[in-house]
Amino acid sequence: MAPSQDNPAAARNLGKGKIATAVAILGERIVAGDFAPGRPLPVEADLAQTLDVGRSVLREAIKVLASKGMVSARPRLGTMILPRSQWNLFDHDVLHWMLRPGLVEPGLLRDILVARAIIEPQAARLAAINATMSDKANIRAAFRAMAESVGDPDASVRADIQFHTSILEASHNAILHAFSPALTAILSAFFQISIQNPEIFPGNLPAHERVAREIDAEDPEAAHAAMLDVLGYTEADLTERLKL
Question: Residue ranges of the HTH gntR-type domain (predicted)?
Answer without folding.
Answer: 16-84
